[in-house]
Amino acid sequence: MAMPLALSLSCGFSLPSTIAPMPAAAAQRSPASRVSMAFVTQFEQMSVETGRTVSMVDITKEVAAIVTKSGCVEGTVTVLAKHSTVGVMLNEFEERFVSDARQWLQRIAPPSYPWLHNDIDFRAGPPGYEGGNEAWRAMRMQEPPNAHSHIIQFVVGTSEAIPIHEGKMTIGAFQNIIVVDADGPAGSLGTPKSRTICVQVQGCDGK
């Protein structure tokens, strides 16, 4: 017969589950030999100020601070960009490499390419948009073409999941958590943007 199991959560609720009966040998062990760890979870959103055209911002310290605040000892932290033209990657945040990466991304997805996504006149707006397709197209006409930005985000990826061990992220000495904004304003038109990044920590506190 399965035995009920309740895991206490730091966010104030419990997860009911079931486990198989404990083997007789394990049941005879002393309480001191059993490991007890509470499940913890921490969710935060941060605003990241980005630059022009394709820009990169290092948020490693900010994510590490959230991991520390969560109290998680063993688990995972997931970092997600809430935009379809913004990515998250793990790599070295060295000035010359950042310049190389920015140039390479713009070469593989040049803004001047005849992307179909930029043909606003042939696109339909989202269902239920007030004013219909014409109103939606008029709104989109005020924004710069950004198909290349979506392609760059497609290459970079939307999120990264990083293991946590002994209370710290297990990233390498030359790995940083980098936000890649592929849709910043060009030239002197417009101002740099503030992007929303989600950070979710889940795991055990080791206590």
Q: Would you kindly provide a written description of the structure presented here, covering whatever features stand out?
A:
This protein is α+β, with helices and mostly antiparallel strands. The chain has one domain (3-21, 35-204): YjbQ-like (Jelly Rolls). Helices cover 23% and strands 32% of the residues. The protein has helices spanning 24-27, 60-70, 95-108, 132-140, 147-156, and strands spanning 3-8, 14-19, 39-49, 55-58, 74-81, 86-91, 159-165, 168-169, 176-181, 194-204. A 5-stranded antiparallel β-sheet has the order 3-10-5-7-8, covered by helices on one side. A 3-stranded antiparallel β-sheet has the order 4-9-6, sandwiched between helices. The radius of gyration is 23 Å and the shape is globular.
Q: Examine the secondary-structure arrangement and name the CATH architecture.
A: Sandwich
Whole-angstrom Rg: 23 Å
Beta fraction: 25-35%
Distance between the termini: 29 Å
Characterize the overall form: globular
> Quick one: biggest sheet?
5 strands, antiparallel
What is the number of domains? 1
Name the CATH class: Mainly Beta
User: How do the SSEs run, as a string of H and E?
Assistant: EEHEEHEEHHHEEEE
* Helical coverage, percent range: 10-25%
Ranges with pLDDT <50 over ≥5 residues? 1-19
How many strands? 10
CATH homologous superfamily grouping: YjbQ-like
Please give the count of helices.
5
Provide the spatial order of strands within the biggest beta sheet. Answer: 3-10-5-7-8
Fold-level CATH name: Jelly Rolls
What is this structure's SSE topology?
Layout lengths: L2 E6 L5 E6 L4 H4 L11 E11 L5 E4 L1 H11 L3 E8 L4 E6 L3 H14 L23 H9 L6 H10 L2 E7 L2 E2 L6 E6 L12 E11 L3
Antiparallel strand pairs: 1-2, 3-10, 4-9, 5-7, 5-10, 6-9, 7-8
